[in-house]
Structure formats: structure tokens, C-alpha cells
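Page header: ASSEMBLY MODEL / two components / 486 residues total.
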Amino acid sequence: MLRAVDLRIEPGEFVAIAGPNGGGKTTLVRLVLGLERPTAGSAKLFGEEARHFSRRATLGYVAQRSQLGTDAPATVREVVSAGRLAAGGLVGPLRRRDRAIVEEAISRVGLQEQAGLPIAHLSGGQQQRAFIAKALAGEPALLVLDEPTAGVDVGAQEALAALLAQLHRELRVTILYVSHEFGAVEPVVERLVLVRGGIVFDGRPRDLPGRWHDPSHVHV
Amino acid sequence: MFELEFMRLAFAAGSVVGVLAPAVGFFLVQRRMSLIGDGIGHTAFAGVAAGYLLGVAPELTALVAAVGGAVAVEWLRARRRAAGDQALALLFYTGIAAGVVLISAAGALDADLFAFLFGSILTVSRTDLVLVMTLGMTGLAIVGLLYRPLAAIVLDEEGARVAGVPVGALNVTVAALAGVTVAVSMRIVGILLIAALMVLPVIAASRLAGSMRAAVLLSMGIGLASVLLGLTLAYQVDLAPGGAIVLVAAASFLVALGIETVRSRR
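Prediction written out in full:
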């Protein structure tokens, strides 16, 4: 249950939403993406009601790893191409321009050499990059990553933070990074929002009180 | 054996089912819904029984029951009214219980249920073949047309939903296709073995294929080969055709496993 949430994210911001498990992060993200309806108040996306947002193809979402088809018999290129579906049309083959955008997305995450490999043959960190490329293939105005550090090692988490910082710098895409811990991205995010039943901190990471650096200790 | 018309009809109808069942089954297996075909088979049994009770062609009532059951399971799953396995359990037991009640109400317990439960491909008529071809080709055309969105849902259902892909409608379409596949396959391998042809070729192909497109095509190839080889074996050695077809499909998994093991040792 989330109460009294008042959150406004400006286009182009890179925001980490953190907090303990069960604190309401996922609910907040589902409200932002229009997948759930608030019991009171409203959730808006680029000025439109989130539930009825008209430009959904511009939303890039990287779900939790357990929800992704990482064991499906699909190549990295097929995975990334799936991200071009909403923008490129549901039926028929991808057009040349769409295929070029897919290849560019693969390059941006540094998986050119793995593009033809089955996704199941990649490491956890590489699989995560492939699904980020999938989200990028839709040329998103908003990129949302839900628990991206789950199941990947520390090295891959740091590489992910560097990749996201680079994407943010080059594409000026709005990024919402949702995780129960934010250590990996703390150096690169501009704004940190801590959630525990409501928003208990909203500001620059360096202004975070020391006792809250471990979000499991966040107390309202 | 092709000088016999019933064999020609059996091979023609079986070929359609051999290709259609894995093509539809692929999108169920990859979403971890391998057993839905079995559940739909049980509702198809209720449909057959309703046909006897109403004096309507059992194939037609089975088609309606199979599609209805499949869509109901998808609705329960999507609305989170029941977990996936619970929705399937509801389908299994309601289907078989309704079938038994309806069959007894129709006083048709002595009807030729064996043909529906285990298939009777050698009794396929020209009219049956036209129905199988029409529904089968329509099903394959829909899978071909919707391949990309269906693949996207397999890879990332929530991501597709966020991006505005009509995930709910596509999932209902796959469920309805599964219902049609079961109804069409009923005469070929029987209600009790139907799901095997939707699942086993897919499991085998997924171990060997290097891409999703290749996995779908290989699944269809294995399904077709299972039907052709199974029917030939059944004719030559005098076996039950439905069982022979499914055993060949099961053997394809062992072959795939062997190939995979050899590859990994290289």
C-alpha cells in the first residue's frame, strides 16, 4: 500500500527508486506505467493519464529477470527485434529502418559479437544488456528497469551503471532505475527516491542521511 | 499402402495436424503452459459427450467446448482469479466430470468413445479432411501472421504490455488456436494424447535450434515427421496409430538429447 505519494519526474532525469522489498516500489512503477489504477489521485505520463497513455511504444521497460524469457530458444537479435514490435508494426517483417535501429541498439549495449547467439548462452549481465537493447529498440522516451541487479555479479552491476550513465548522456532518455539497493548506481544517478509505504526521501544521493544507505533500514 | 484411400486420407489429415500442433504448442510451451493441451482435451471430451446428448456431430461440439475451455483458462490466468496450475486443474476435472455426466445422461456409455479418446485416424473421411485442412490452414496462417507479437510475448510479456502490444487479445487468440488444434487433432491422435503432439516436438526442437524462428520450423518438421513415421509404423507393424505417432515424437526428444550431448562434448 502506498500513501500520499507526490512525485514528479522531469523529462531527461535519471532517477533511482529504492526501498526495502514490500515497500511499494513495484506498485509505484506499475502506477507510473499505467498498469495499475491509483485508488485516489492520478498518475500521469508526459501529461496524459498513465492508464490511457497514447504513445506506449515510447515506453521501454526491462522487467525483473525472472519474468524474462532468458531460456527461450532465441538469439540476441531476435530478443532485441521484439522491442521494435510496438513501434515498427505488429504484423509483417521488420522494415530496413527498423532493422537498422535494432542493430544500433545491439551496438549501444556492446553485444555486436553476440547478436547471433542464443540468449541462453549469455551470462546474466549480458542477458540484461540484451533486454536493455530490446527496450532501446523502441526508441523510448522513458526507460524503466525493475530490479536490474538481481542475479548479476558485482562487476556486471558496475558495468550496468556505466552503461546506463552513457545511455543517459548520449540519448537524454528519462531513466527510472528501481531496485531494493542502489549502491551500484549511486555515483551516476541525479536523484534518489526512497520508498517505504510512501516517499521517505527524495533528493540527491549525497544528501541521503547516512543511516539510510542500506534501504532495508529505512524507517518512516 | 498409398493404394488404400483411407491411408491417403490419414496421411493428408495427419500431416496438417503434425505441422499445426507444434506451431501452436510452441507458444504455450515457451510460456510454461505445456499441459494446457491436456486440459483442453478433457473439455473436448465433454464436448463430444454433449454432441451425443444433443444429437449433433461430436466433432462440432468438441470444437466449441475446446475453444471455450481454452479461452476460459486464459481468462482465469490473466485476471488472476486462479494461478496457472489451478486454472488448469479446474479445466481438467470439470471437463472430464462433465463428459462422464453428459455421456451417461445421453445413455451413450456404449458409444464408440475409444475412437475419440485414442484417435481413429484410419476412419477419416473426405469431409473430415476438408474440415481438418480448412481449420488447420487457417490456424497456421494466423500463427504466421502473428508470429512476431507472439514471439515478443514469449520473450517478455510485461515489456510487451507496457509498450502497448495487445497482450490479452493475443493470449486469447493462442488459447483459441489451441482449442481448434485439439478439436482438429482429436481424430488423429485422440483426446488423451493430443497434448503430446503440441509439446514433445517443441521440447526436442528447442534443444537443437539456434534461434526462435528455427525452433518453430524444426518443431513443425519434427511434428510432421512423427506423424508420417508413426503412421507408417502403425500400418507396417499393426500398431495403434495415435500411440505410434506420439512414441515417435517422444523418441525425437531422446534423439535431440543425444545430439545435444555430442555437441557439448566437442
